[in-house]
Amino acid sequence: MSLLDIVLFLPLVGFLLLVFTPKGNDQLPRVMALGISLLVFVISLGLIGPFMGSTIPEGYQFVTDASWISSPPIRYHIGLDGLSLWLVLLTTLLTPIAVLVSWKSIDHRVKEFFAFLILLEFGLIGVFVSLDLFLFYVFWEIGLVPMYFLIGIWGHDRRIYAAVKFFLYTMAGSVLMLAGIIYLYNRAGTFDYVQILSQLQSGRLVLSSQAEMLLFSAFFLAFAIKVPLFPLHTWLPDAHVEAPTAGSIMLASVMLKMGTYGLVRYSVPLFPNAAHKAAPFIIGLAVIGIIYGALVALVQPNMKKLVAYSSVSHLGFVVLGVFSFTQQGLDGAVYQMLNHGISTGALFMLVGFLYERRHSLEISAYGGVATPAPNLAIVFLITTLASVGLPMLNNFVGEYLVLQGASQVNFTATVFAAVGVILSACYMLWLYQRTFYGKASESLSHHMPDLSTREWAVSVPLLLLMFWMGIYTQTFMPPISAQNARILQQYQQQQNRPQSANTPGASEVANAR
Amino acid sequence: MPANAFPTSAEYLRFLPEIILTLGGVVIMLLEAVFTNDDQRKIFGPLSIVALFAALLASISAAGDPGAAFSNMLVIDGFASFFRALVIGIGVLAILGSTGYLRQERMPGGEYHALILFSILGQCVMVSANELIMIFIGLEISSIASYVLAGYLRDDPRNNESALKYFLLGSFATAFLLYGVAWIYGLTGSTNLDQIRGALQTSAAPLVMAGAAAAFMFVGFGFKISAAPFQIWAPDVYQGAPAPVSGFLSVGPKAAAFAILLRVFMTAFGPIADRWEPMVWGCALATMMVGNFAALQQSNIKRMLAYSSIAHAGYVLVAVTAHSETGSAAAMFYLAAYAFTNLGAFAVVTYFSRKGEKYVAIDDFAGLSQRQPAMAAMLTIFLLSLIGVPLTAGFFGKFYIFKAALDANLTWLTVLGLLNSAVAAYYYLRLLVVMYFKDPGDSVENLEPAGLSLQIAVYASAFGTLLLGIFPGWVLDIATKSALK
Amino acid sequence: MDALLFMIFAAIAVVCGINLVVQTHPISSALSLVGVMGALAALYLLLGGEFIAAAQLVVYAGAIMVLFIFVIMLLNAGTEARGRRSWAHYAGVPLLLLLFGLIACLITRRMPASENVVFGQFTKGGPLDIGRALFTTYLLPFEVTSVLILVAILGAIVLARKEID
Amino acid sequence: MHQLWLIPLLPLAGFAINGLFGRRLAKPAINAVAVGSVLLSFLWVLKTLSALGVFGGGESVLELAYQEHYFTWIQSGSLNIGVDFAIDRLTAVMLMIVTGVGFLIHVYAVGYMAHEGGYYRFFAYLNLFMFFMLTLVLGANFLLLFVGWEGVGLCSYLLIGFYFLEKFATDAGNKAFIVNRIGDFGFSLAVFLIAMHFGSLDFTTVFGKAKDMPVESSAGWMTAIALLLFVGAAGKSAQIPLYVWLPDAMAGPTPVSALIHAATMVTAGVYMVARSSEIFLHAHGALEVVAMVGLATAFFAATMGLAQTDIKKVYAYSTVSQLGYMFLGLGSGAFSAGIFHVMTHAFFKALLFLGAGSVIHAMSGEQDLGKMGGLKKYTPITFWTLLCASVAIAGIPPFSGYHSKDAILAAAYEFAPWMYWVGVVTAGMTAFYVFRAFFLAFFGEPRWKKTHDSHGHGHEDRDAHGGHGHGEPHESPASMWVPLAVLAVGSLAGGYINIPKWLEPMFKLHEEAPGTEWLVIVSVAAGVIGIALAALFYLVSPGIPEGLARTFSTPYRWIYNKYFVDEFYDALVVNPTVDGSRSLLWRVVDAGAIDGTVNGVGKTARAVGGILKRMQSGSIRSYAAWVVLGSIIVITAINMAGGGK
Amino acid sequence: MPALPASVPLSWYLILSAILFSLGVAGFLFRRNIITVFMSIELMLNAVNLSFVTFSYKLKQVDGHIFSFFVMVVAAAEAAVGLAIILTVFKNRQTLEIDEVSSLKN
Model's pTM, two decimal places? Predict the structure, then answer.
């Protein structure tokens, strides 16, 4: 029973506790959810231990490897490395924040809401720590259900459409990944990620180039939908706009990372040759996504939709970084995952604050908020600046590294991606101007109290992280960098290995069952 | 002529479950005259469950001593035992799920329980038969009981129509089945599955005719399992039949029919697998698509579940297409998983529809989650299992099936099947949407809490669904051990 | 002689069969069916099925068909009304021809060649042989069939009993 | 260790204190924190420089850059970017300008902003600006330079939009930030290329490697780096075509215009190009581009300055024009001359703006030259100090502008004589419009008397002094005029600080070629002629300008409307982007094509379901027909599969 | 008229069976009276029985006869239940028109 097991299963325990909480008392579930999520967060801080210090450990930490299902051999195999560490912490940090954000705004079916929120945490942590492909898929799908309910029950007007779209979109992508996982199992005889990887590296398992490409596509589609990569992104704006604030936060901050995490964890190491071949195409989509997302964000009349499209743009950077296959690109991509989690999560949170006050997401319903609520304006401004990638705030580091990495392999793409940085300033500042600047109308002034203590409490940690991650990256970067170095090393080894499949005869041998 | 004209005691033991079920049914028929209607409902439910449990024990003990019985008419192997246990379990859940319904419709309980027992008896005979003649008789016992069950509320025109359609079309399809049997008999000189297999393996075997015979027989089996294009009866019959009966029909006879389909096609027609595989491939795909796509348009929940049941038959047909050991095991697991899930779902529908099945439109479920959160949560589990979300039985069922299909190099069928399951998510989600996202309407106003036996049925199904979803290993191990070659 | 008998009875069977299909009154159809059954009984005899020919007449033509006619009378069923015709009506003819063509083609082309039918060549279809088979090899189906009939009786009672509750 | 980090961190501390607690602090406390932190920073600069021997030693010190390493900022693979500060001669000059002039402007702002709302906010921003500007000049690698670079842009954005209740102010802020971002786009691409080709971003490493390359290296990427850097510089230093934000930036409070948009931030581009001189020297054709763009900017901005009626706009265009001069100097290879002009310009342009602020202050917020006049007797100190600055910018000896401008023009002549001539004409125009503004403000009939009252209200919350907008124009308080006086001294004598000589170890000293002494005379003459024309037009016979405007109505309209560049950008870039995004990308591509496809799949599925459900006609006979059809299909299929065996 | 052979091939019987089977199908498809439809099924079963007996002759086995015997029994059982079902339908709807019994549909 390692620390990681506790971090993983405590939310599940919390979920069950919440489910069996008696009805009628609305305050109890809130307190319970907060207590559980904070406890999980505090315990999860202990996970950092092995990754701090001068040497970053090779391999996985906090490994638990137990049999779950004997035949086919599906294992409960979890572990943590530099890649998953911060994503787990991001999840455990944002869950209590999401709980606090929903403290007042959720006033019907309270118990269910918090139960689903905590269940979501369980699924998300599971995704990041699974080292068994099957287990990974299980968690991947589990996360879908609570989010579906979060959007569907507590969302806004078109919540049903959004929830169903969200579910079906993701489902459509993931079923093909399931096919890929099964195929991989049939070839490798195991679902264990570590073993499959070592089989691939040692040459005991050889995929024909066609099979590799098909497998890569199956995995990639699932991840690309989740990321979401242009043109598979249209579920995102709907889901975000309709979701309650906490749902948007979890969706943007953590759920989208499932896709990018999958790319780094699975797509690249398992299918390096296919990834290499597909890279120009994917980079193209990523860059289109960056510019396209930004341009569409520019003209959104709805705040959440604007932020949602900005996510499309931001995550394009992550994909660009991953498929540059350079140290800087990968480091930047992983870092950018965290950055986006912090800053876009904060943006959704702040939009939620505004919504709680005025019950509108239309930008035109605002204007001059800075006068009645200066603190809110400042917090929003800092978050905006983080989002546009101002130096000394977190996003800059990620974006810089991504572009630096990408520039080494595809300068044209970098140039276009850098245009996205310009555009991000355009849409974010315009949003800020229209919302906070100008003269406040009478009705707005009356319903726009400044930040409450609770709101401060959730804002400050995020703000601190924005600065911390922007200025002193050494706290976070070494584990990421070390893990990426390993991934790249493996990737290059695979690249150099002569591929037997290029000749038809050999591929048939490899395909023989 | 076999030497052992007189059966041994071991053979009787192997046939004990059927004997117990027969006795149970007969005792109920006899006692019926003694009790009033109210008492009947109270007594016969537990009585039949006792009989079923006895039969279950008998079949488990029979599984310990596998072998043929009665001049090779029956073969009690793992496969047969698995399905015997499954259909008996289905019987238990079906009876638990229908007690309240009978009370509310004020129907006598005697014949109902006897018919269920006889139907299960027929299914037991089917799954353990090793001879076409036994298969035919078992099928007829099960079917005739089912026809009557479908029309059990004889004053209800929906029930009449359901029974009539089921009966006429069922007999029609049976005629095709028999025609195929006649041919295969003429070609191989036997109706014993092993001997047919042996005859077909000889070099002189007339394979084209055998294929045609297999096709005729597939019409009959395909009808029972509601495979496209023989699925058309299912929606009407399931919609018209009493809700608990629909639940029973969608799993019991179907599981047994799949068992004999697997046994006949993998054993007897094993040598001509390359002939029927493409045909079953097409049927599997067509079945999935017809079921899923047509379900998108349904507004009646029983009808929707009927289409869903068609679609699920399509998934199992994928496993049949694979015609491998893993495929057979996957089909077995899937049918078990589906039994729990669908019986549970129908139990909730039974509970919800109330007297005269007034509330069976999907929109009637609006706000169920707020009036009966526990029931709604259970239905959610069943629906998620039907969608195939992990940690439910349905997910592992699909997983094993598609794994077997990929093993058998059925890549495209796998991909199309998986995409189908994504399409299917839509209509299940619609029910979730209505239950959870819509405000309660009139239909949930006067909803009484569920009766005890129904609650047992629902919770047991949910438990089974989750158990098979979280620890599928033990059932799969049994299935793998007892799968056909 | 065999051929002639076959021709005669086959002709009767086919004509009665067609009559069954074209008659609009159920009684006419029922009588046509009896005709088919009688002709078939004769053919069974030609094929050496003494017992089965008898059973055909006793069970089928005698018992079952009487039941049919009884029900027809009971329900006072009259001539079919000329109602609307579904697509099945029009598609039916080509479908039938296709089905029949397929079966006939298979029988004539693909059925392994065999000898001509000569009366008296096969004599094991007598009651003795049947009885021996039924009570040895086919003991179980024979017994189980009794359950089948029991179920049928039960079903008929459930559906046709006078009143409920 | 000389604790260089204290230099930027002192203002940052000021920012932090005022930013976090300013709302609860009294004004004197805010002043103390804001001004004090900058003063301490200035003093620390002096202390550090003297400790480095700058004031005592002369030539020998700071041959090499003095560098301090604090911590690793970004470490990824071979790329290691530290938070390092360094001082060399160039930095020393910039530090002195930034902290010195910055301090004066802080002092001035205390008086100027005395009656403003958001007082603490203003000073917090101003301190933050100081922090970023100092980081910019102290940073020892390109990325740290970029930090300061973006940071000052942010402060510029915040301060331009200081009056955030007014849409034009926030619009101007956005415009400044976004146009700067376009420049930064070029800068960042340059940074990527530098890291790619030099393997590092540290100045010492990069320039060391660049130095070892052959002069006029033919490597295309070197030129690309240089040009991309220049794009960045053009954004920040308001060069064609990215100058459009600077005139709008005058929406900010006047001290901001003086500090950020005249003295310091806008010269960051010049600093950066000078800093990267090794790269420019090794890049084929890059310097030519710099010179051309600089010259074009200088000339066109000057023409635009001719017709402006807003006093701050006049100075804004003059800033653009002077920045063009600086780039002309840099492009001509006279890096030190460019920096020299940065310094003198800091003096006289800060003075011009502060003087303008004083005038505006006196006029209770009025900025229109057409509504001024005759202020000489009301605001004598402002009058004299502004005169100093105007003479300096006109390039009249011995004022500071003369020295630096002369150095630039001399270099330009050597580079290309025609550039010199254009420069001279520009100098003449500069002298003309600066004095035009000067004369219009201080001489002639007071044109403000009739309309005075109404104006006090019009600009109530826009710029200062709604509260005391009644009565006669008056001289500014001491906190305002003392900095004016100090800057006047700088404008007067600043030219005698021989920056080119001081920078000689870094940049080749530009020796004036023999036989070119006449160049000086010509350029001075141009200045004199410009002043004379201004005097003629606006003092002697005020009718001439209108006549000229009527006669040359088309050129006048173009100049008056700034060549319609803003409108051109709007029509060509901004509107198509916004409209295209809305109507094409969002509505057509996103909602129509992509989402339409997605929903279309759903609709198709349901339509298929609709067709399939027609099978279910309810009629038993049709069901039987399906069974028959199915059996035919099944039998056929199974026969097909067998291959006829 | 060609001379009639002394005996006919086995396949003629089978063809006759096929004809009767098809006629049964035809009756199901074309007749509208439920009882007639049911009788058509009986006709199909008879056709099947003919096949069984024919094959039994060919194989010189009794098993085909046994099978057809069971078919008869089953047919009897089905007849009992089927007619009972038809009775209930008639009681509820007062009609034997098969097309009238089509209320369950999409």
Answer: 0.89
